[in-house]
Amino acid sequence: MEATLTEKQNELRKWIKKIGLNQKYFAQLYAQHLYYDPHEDDIKAFYEKYKGHMKKDRTTTDVNIINKYLDFLFTLEEFKDTGYVKPTFHHKDRFSDSFNKRMEKISKKITEKLVNEDM
To answer: Where are the beta strands (DSSP E) in the chain?
Structure first.
């Protein structure tokens, strides 16, 4: 069961907030990651593109773009300094689809509870 675009956008927003960054600073870090020695105009242009990707109720953004942002976030020193660990799912086809779906729901509930307690 794949997460929807909205779920992934919300996950990214929560993680950015949780590690003490804001959306603009995260976009700036990502732009610096994309471009070698980016010009201020490159950073501004990327931020506008990023804001478009993060718009609520947007359906044209590929969820893989948000996954790339999340993967990048998990490599940041700011993330590592918090002591959090990148959430991962290991699926080896050992269990039935119904079992995996139930476990995913449980995991989401636990994550939501932990995120809400930290805020």
So the answer is: none
